[in-house]
Amino acid sequence: MNLHLDGKIALVTGSSKGIGAGIARGLAREGAVVVVHGRDREQAAAVARKIGQEGGTAHVVTGDLTDVAAVDSLLTEVRAVGNIDILVNNAGGSGGNSDWSTTEANVWASTYDANVLAAMRMAKAVLPQMRHAGWGRIINISSLAALMPPAGNPDYSAAKAAMLAMTSSMAKAVAAEGVTVNTVSPGTIRSETFERKFREVAQQRGIAPEAPWEEVEAEVLPLFASVPVGRAGTLEEIADAVAFLASPRASYITGSNLRLDGGMLPTF
How big is the CA angle at 170 (ends 169 and 172), to the nearest 5 degrees? Predict the structure, then answer.
C-alpha cells in the first residue's frame, strides 16, 4: 500500500531511542523527511545516520520540551527544514519508580510537564501552519497504562490518560480544517531497553545470555504481562500504525485511540 508520504516533513519528538526511533525509521521508510529529536545530540545523530543508511532522509534537532525557550529554538531549526506536515508527540516518560506510599506532587507535576505539556507546546506551535495549509497530522503517543493503570507509577498513568482527553479535544477543534489528531497507545513493546531487562531476568532463571529471543520471551513475558497473542509487539508494528495514521489514507480517522497491545485490554 502506498501511503503517499513522499516528501512530507515529520517531526518525531523523543526519537533518539526506543519507540520514537522506531517510528522515525518507519516514517522515513515510507518516504517522509524525518526530523529526529532528543536531548542527546549524539544519540539523535546515530538514529539519523541509520535512517540515511536505509535510504531515508533525516535531520537532527535537540532540546528540552519542558523549557519554553528551548522549544522556540528547536522549532526555528525545524522550520529551516520546512513546514511540519506530521507531528508525532512521543517524548515523555515517568518521573521515577513510585507507588501510593511514596509518590509526591512535584513528581506528578514534572511527569505531566514532560508528557502532556510538552505535547501541547509542540501541537500549539505547528497547528496554525497546518490549519492554513488545510492538511496536517498530529499523533500523540500514550500508553496502555492510561487505560489499564498499574499500582505503581501513578503519575505516569495519569499523564498518559490526560493525553487521551487532549487528543479528543484537539481533534474536534481542527477536524473541519484537514488536520487529524489521534493517539497510539502501545502495550508491551520490544525495545532495546525492554529486551535487556528481559534477558537479565531470563539469566536469573537459568537461561543462557545468548539464548534466542523467542526462548527468553516465552520464559519471561508471563511474569510481566498476560498478552493474549503470546508475544511482545515490535517497533516496526508501532511504526506501521503511526505511518498509516499519518497518511492521507487515514483522513477520516480523527480523535481515535489506537491500542497496540496484543489484546491485553478487556473488551465488553
Answer: 70
> The domain that contains 121 carries what CATH number?
3.40.50.720
113 and 203 belong to one structural domain: no
Mapped to the 3 state alphabet, what secondary structure does 5-24 carry? CCCCEEEECCCCCHHHHHHH
Q: What are phi and psi of 50, to 5 degrees?
A: -60, -40
Q: Render pLDDT for 196-235 as a digit per residue (tens, 0 to 9).
A: 999 999 999 999 999 999 999 999 999 999 999 999 999 9
Q: What is the pTM of this model?
A: 0.95
CA distances from 167 to 43, 156, 171, 175, 258 (A): 29, 17, 6, 12, 12
- For the chain, strand residue ranges (E) read 9-12, 33-38, 57-62, 86-89, 136-141, 179-186, 189-190, 233-234, 257-260
Contacts of 81 (CB under 8 A, 6+ apart): 9, 33, 35, 59
Residue 124: Cβ within 10 Å count: 11
Find the domain containing 14 and state its range: 9-188+234-260
On whether residue 126 sits in a domain, the answer given is yes
Active site residues: 156
